[in-house]
Write a structure and sequence with these properties.
This protein is α+β, with helices and mostly antiparallel strands. The chain folds into two domains: 36-151, Roll (CBS-domain), CATH 3.10.580; 186-324, Histidine kinase-like ATPase, C-terminal domain (Heat Shock Protein 90). 39% of the residues lie in helices and 18% in strands. It is built from twelve helices and ten strands. The chain has helices at 4-12, 23-35, 55-65, 84-93, 100-103, 117-120, 147-176, 178-181, 205-216, 221-241, 284-288, 296-303, and strands at 69-74, 77-83, 111-112, 131-135, 141-146, 189-195, 246-252, 256-263, 306-311, 317-324. A hairpin with a 2-residue loop joins β1 (69-74) and β2 (77-83). The site of magnesium ion has 4 residues, from α10.
Length: 340
């Protein structure tokens, strides 16, 4: 039974690639072309010719560089494109001595370097253009896209992604076996992350590190998502509200996750208020950066199985969060030691 087949078969007709591959492969190719930008698949060194050069010179340049067309550039402006078919037309007319600007195509279709490949791929090829000049948002010619360079670069990109996936698989395989390899009645893995105050350039590193580690331990994706949200909020509170930062500790048991975020000040004045959605003491400059909506602790409570906050004004704050793995213990198998 493959219920997903119908859905992808429906969306397939919308792709620029027609029906060239099986459904599951199409999805991967689609993902590739929808996530790869033109600038990473174009040829950055463009061979160009001046509009005042002769068609004979254009022909010689194409022959020398093994290309079948090129943009015509005057100063830093692209004014047209000249191709082998224009050269052939000149040959027939006996006008190889005429300047390029008389024979070139003036209405050139270009692509923006920051567009996704999916947006332009349909315009290339036997029924489209042989080459598409690539411009940046200021209109400067920055590269050229041909079927050849596109295929080469996409294959390279696929190779890189495939290797990354294989590496990730191996790492997740290794990590998920930790619990099998250690002999104890109950094993727990403790991760520690130091979070600096007001360090916005590193904010989010602890939560993404925890997320990656849990993925490698093959924790259920739905739980990983909830943990990632909760830890991100806890981390941001250490960044935003503390004097000297703090520490996040994640204790990964086979059946549960115990997370704590601890700091040494300034502590919380209105502990009964902080859980209310919208309550925030964040100063204006923090709000100007898009933080301080007062939803952090409410989100943590919503995502987790249990949460507790202890604080003393002038002292520190301790936030404890618990997630239960329930029917999906880390490392598989039964929980609680004495394993066969
Ligand atoms: N570690 C902490 N130290 C001091 N105050 C904190 C800490 N964590 C939270 N608070 C207080 O709790 C309030 C609510 O937190 P939260 O719900 O995350 O919203 P926000 O961070 O957007 O203000 C904060 O505005 C702050 O006053
Ligand atoms: Mg917060």
């Amino acid at each position: 039974m493959r219920p997903a087949l119908k859905v992808s078969a429906l969306s397939r007709s919308k792709t620029a690639l027609g029906d060239m591959a099986e459904d599951h492969e199409i999805t991967k190719v689609q993902e590739l072309i929808y996530t790869t930008r033109v600038e990473s698949v174009m040829a950055p060194d463009v061979i160009v010719i001046s509009p005042s050069a002769t068609m004979a010179e254009a022909r010689a340049l194409m022959r020398e560089k093994h290309i079948s067309g090129m943009p015509v550039v005057e100063g830093d402006r692209m004014v047209g494109i000249v191709s082998m078919s224009d050269v052939m037309e000149s040959l027939e007319k006996g006008s190889l001595g005429r300047p390029v600007f008389e024979m070139m195509t003036r209405d050139v279709k270009t692509a923006f370097s920051d567009s996704y490949v999916a947006e332009v791929i349909g315009r290339l090829g036997p029924r489209g253009f042989g080459r598409i000049p690539v411009i940046d948002r200021e209109g400067r010619l920055v590269g050229i896209l041909t079927t050849g360079t596109l295929i080469q670069s996409l294959l390279r990109e696929m190779d890189i992604r495939y290797k990354k996936k294989e590496e990730e698989k191996l790492q997740s395989y290794r990590a998920s076996h930790i619990y099998d390899d250690i002999v104890s009645d109950d094993t727990s893995l403790v991760l520690r992350y130091i979070v600096d105050d007001k360090d916005f350039s590193n904010a989010g590193k602890a939560s993404s590190g925890i997320k990656k580690s849990l993925q490698r331990l093959r924790v259920l994706p739905s739980i990983v998502r909830r943990v990632a949200v909760a830890v991100y909020e806890a981390e941001m509170n250490l960044v935003i509200h503390t004097d000297v930062g703090g520490e996040i500790t994640v204790d990964i048991r086979r059946d549960r996750l115990l997370i704590s975020a601890v700091d040494h000040g300034p502590g919380i004045e209105n502990i009964s208020e902080v859980l209310k959605p919208g309550y925030s003491t964040a100063p204006q400059w923090i709000r100007d950066m898009g933080f301080g909506a007062g939803m952090g602790l409410a989100n943590i409570k919503r995502c987790s199985d249990s949460m507790r906050i202890l604080s003393e004004l002038g002292g520190g704050t301790r936030l404890d969060i618990i997630f239960l793995f329930r029917d999906h213990p880390v490392g598989g198998g039964p929980v609680g030691g004495k394993r066969a």
